[in-house]
Amino acid sequence: MKKLIIILLTLFTATSIMASEFEELDKPPEGAHKGQMLLGGFVCAGIPFGVLITAEDDFLAGNWYILSSGTMKELIVNHLAFDMGISFEYMPIDHLGLKSRLRYTSIVQRTAFGPENENWNESLFSLFSITLGPSFHLTNRKQWDVTLNPGLGYGLGSFEPTPIAARLVTGYDNGGAADISCFFFGSELNLTIYFSGGVFMSLGAEYTYYPLSFSTSNPLTQPPAGTDNGNGRTYSADAGGSLQTVNLNISVGYAFSN
């Protein structure tokens, strides 16, 4: 939470400084309209799900881990998704814009041993990407606006299956992270408020679908049941599957006209 607050403050400060370099800082809130450009930064946090998340949970089921205190805990994990980046939109006509985003996405896997015990964090999925799509605006030249932004994206990154198991299950090796590339799609719904001087702030939610495919030449299998922490399970998504995220997002930026 502290890191998220620092990021938000940094983005707000950066956009405020950028806004000070434009003329007519005292102009009243103008809202979205033809010819307007919107440049901003955003951060997102949410919950991932899908075939690959289910495969992770199933692979860990039945595993136990002995903590340094001597307590035995079932190996259960939680998953969190984070996004951050910059966006730019140009509106050729009223109520319609073309929006692009450069973004970094991360899905983190974390053990659920409780706050009183040591926990481990491992990266399951990371992606640097660009998205492009239309932006539909409900209002015209008003201080508030509601936007719907479907988009298609392409990204390069990495995926490491069963990273917690590879670290905590004795005798198991997942082969490490693999480089990936993928097309994906999603949509975001935002409420935007415009302030004097061109500054805007948006709050909203977004859904993203990432289809991933892998090689099946080396199936991942744990040590047999009864051997160390193993349970003999085979990873059920060696051929790939989907990652999906539902995020809450916040963005701040500057709106100006050509």
What is the ordering of alpha helices and beta strands? HEHEEEEEEHEEE
Whole-number radius of gyration? 22 Å
What's the average pLDDT?
88
Multimer state: single chain
Number of strands: 10
Query: Structural class given helices, strands, pairing?
Result: mainly beta
Number of helices: 3
Beta content: over 45%
Describe the sheet with the most strands. 8 strands, antiparallel, barrel
Distance between the termini: 38 Å
Uncertain stretches of 5 or more adjacent residues: 1-24
The coarse overall form would be: elongated
In percent, how helical is the residue content?
A: 10-25%
Q: In order across it, which strands form the biggest sheet? A: 1-4-5-6-7-8-9-10
Provide structural commentary.
The chain is mainly beta. The protein is about 15% helix and about 55% strand. The chain contains three helices and ten strands. The protein has helices at about 1-20, 50-60, 165-170, and strands at about 35-50, 65, 70-75, 75-95, 95-110, 120-135, 145-160, 180-195, 200-215, 240-255. Strands 1-4-5-6-7-8-9-10 form an eight-stranded antiparallel beta barrel. Strands 2-3 form a two-stranded antiparallel ribbon. The longest helix is centred in the first third of the chain and has 19 residues, at about 1-20. Residues about 1-25 have low confidence and may be disordered.
Nutshell version of this structure?
The protein has 258 residues and is mainly beta.
